[in-house]
């Protein structure tokens, strides 16, 4: 375990060692406020998705700004959130397998926990584990609203699942989830809106049969940063799950936004890197490669330096192509902005880094870095402050 953190409170940003994730505090706080303003008077709840940050301290800030709770994609993320004091978590995903089901049920002893399902056997497994643990689990039926990932067909199949949930003494029917993931990055506003109109229609096809069967639907949840105001306008969704808005990313920046009414969220999370080699005038190399970022949504962009491009990536190196007039020197520090807000961490098998720590600092090669300093943040005056540190239990305890 490394005992040398990249930063300490009060340190100038220029002195922060690299590679490090840094949050631009002004944009970060502004994004949280913008989300609240944009939903003012819309009569829907917000439950932000924590997969973008995996960090309880940020979740607390979102709740302080009006969120009713947090979404997680995995049981391990839910554990990190509940260990960090979050009281209401929706695992917006299916949970399968004895070990994970038991961990989920154990969490329901400590917090309000809901989970999604799209399978009858899975409902029975959830019912059995909730009974063994003596807890009540809220279970939502996930409906495929066009994303073609998880989720049952709308209508009769969803109704059958709801009935099975109700038949299980330790389960409560928590409502429907209809998340249209592939709609989020449809570039055109008009086409994105159409995709969500169609998602809402699929939900209506399920609400009708539920009503006929006399089954009240406590909530309809879904939506991401690219579309959430369309779901809000549908009068079908009662809860929204955007996640990326707090940090944003280069891929969302390519969406068309004009006419959507969705606010101009700013990028607030960057990767701080150092120029480690300048072998020839047209090329420089920084210390952030595949171990520090992933490139699923394209290579990162270089912030602040016009014409400089990140053009090559290997394990621990990023190659920058420089235009003729740029003067990068050894030791210069550079902000990279991400191809996708969800694409930073690529934990390797066996690396049991606690979730919240993965957010805080890049895992380095051999040995992995474990940081206990919370989230590093710098504001415009370029001094570091820090969120209240969240100390995660050691991986072996988790
Ligand atoms: C189920 C679910 N809800 C919400 C989100 C958040 O979407 P975004 O990060 O685009 O705001 C995601 C992201 O993948 C998701 O899978």
Q: Can you give keywords for this protein?
A:
8-stranded parallel β-sheet, disordered C terminus, alpha/beta, binds pyridoxal-5'-phosphate, Lyase, Ornithine Decarboxylase, Chain A, domain 1, 398 residues, 9-stranded mixed β-sheet, TIM Barrel
Written account of the structure:
Helix content is 27%, strand content 20%. By secondary structure, the chain is α/β, with parallel strands linked by helices. It folds into two domains: 13-21 and 266-393, Lyase, Ornithine Decarboxylase, Chain A, domain 1 (Beta Barrel), CATH 2.40.37; 25-249, Alanine racemase (TIM Barrel). Strands 1, 10, 11, 12, 13, 14, 15, 16 and 17 form a nine-stranded mixed sheet that branches. Helix 3 links the parallel strand 3 (70-72) and strand 4 (88-94). Helix 3 (75-83) packs parallel to helix 4, helix 4 (98-107) packs across helix 5 and helix 5 (120-133) runs parallel beside helix 6. The longest helix has 24 residues, at 189-212. It binds pyridoxal-5'-phosphate. Pyridoxal-5'-phosphate is lined by residues 49, 51-52, 71, 92, 179, 181, 184, 224-226, 241-244.
């Amino acid at each position: 375990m490394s005992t040398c953190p990249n930063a300490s409170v009060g340190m100038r940003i220029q002195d922060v060692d690299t590679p490090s994730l840094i949050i631009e505090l002004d944009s970060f706080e502004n994004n949280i406020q913008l989300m609240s303003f944009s939903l003012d008077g819309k009569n829907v709840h917000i439950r932000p998705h924590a997969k973008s940050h995996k960090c309880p301290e940020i979740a607390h800030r979102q709740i302080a700004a009006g969120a009713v709770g947090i979404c997680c994609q995995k049981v391990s993320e839910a554990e990190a959130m509940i260990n960090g004091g979050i009281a209401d978590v929706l695992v917006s995903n299916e949970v399968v397998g004895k070990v994970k089901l038991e961990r989920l049920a154990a969490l329901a002893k400590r917090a309000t926990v809901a989970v999604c399902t799209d399978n009858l056997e899975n409902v029975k497994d959830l019912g059995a584990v909730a009974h063994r643990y003596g807890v009540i689990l809220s279970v939502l039926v996930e409906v495929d609203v066009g994303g073609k990932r998880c989720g049952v067909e709308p209508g009769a199949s969803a109704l059958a699942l709801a009935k099975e949930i109700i038949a299980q003494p330790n389960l409560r029917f928590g409502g429907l989830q209809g998340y249209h993931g592939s709609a989020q990055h449809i570039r055109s506003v008009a086409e994105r809106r159409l995709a969500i109109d169609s998602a809402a229609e699929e939900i209506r096809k399920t609400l009708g049969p539920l009503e006929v069967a006399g089954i009240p639907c406590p909530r309809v949840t879904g939506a991401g940063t690219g579309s959430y105001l369309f779901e809000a306008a549908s009068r079908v969704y009662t809860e929204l799950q955007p996640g990326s808005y707090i940090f944003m990313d280069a891929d969302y920046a390519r969406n068309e936004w004009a006419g959507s009414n969705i606010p101009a969220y700013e990028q607030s999370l960057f990767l701080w890197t150092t120029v480690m080699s300048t072998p020839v005038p047209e090329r420089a190399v920084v210390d952030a490669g595949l171990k520090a970022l992933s490139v699923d949504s394209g290579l990162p962009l270089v912030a602040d330096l016009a014409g400089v491009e990140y053009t090559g990536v290997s394990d621990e190196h990023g190659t920058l192509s420089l235009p003729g007039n740029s003067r990068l020197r050894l030791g210069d520090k550079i902000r990279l902005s991400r191809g996708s807000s969800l694409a930073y961490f690529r934990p390797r098998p066996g690396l049991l880094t606690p979730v919240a720590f993965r957010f805080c600092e890049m895992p380095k090669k051999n040995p992995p870095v474990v940081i206990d300093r919370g989230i590093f943040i710098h504001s415009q005056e370029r001094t570091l402050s820090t969120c209240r540190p969240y100390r995660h239990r050691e991986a072996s305890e988790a």
